Amino acid sequence: MRWVIGALGIAISAWGAYLLLPLIDVNLALWFIGGPVVHDVLLAPLFGGLGLLISRWVPEPWRAPVQVGGVLTGVLVLLAVPLLWRPFAGPANPGLNDRDHLVGLLVAVVVSWLGVLTANLIGRALRRRHPRV
Prior knowledge:
By secondary structure, the protein is an all-alpha fold. It has 4 helices and no strands.
């Protein structure tokens, strides 16, 4: 049964590749090659270094909240990049394109970092009330 499923998967992949051949151009190649190169050359070392700095310079009680805030900030920026870069590139979406995306991103990032601060302060207060044995 596995061989049948594997053969079907290979056949469907081959059909998809056949349908993709007429669409291949420079932009598609840049998209498929540029993404991994940008990730491996630029983003992975940058965020690895940021993680190392956090582990070295941020005090222990703040490490996890700061890492969560960093991940939330990264996800928010990643989601906002298409709207900041080319706000009206796609079809109109009522309610989505008629706002200031940069201000929305900044507000969301500030709210997430206020959540990080609040979580750490609550955690600190709970640790004072209930010290570990």
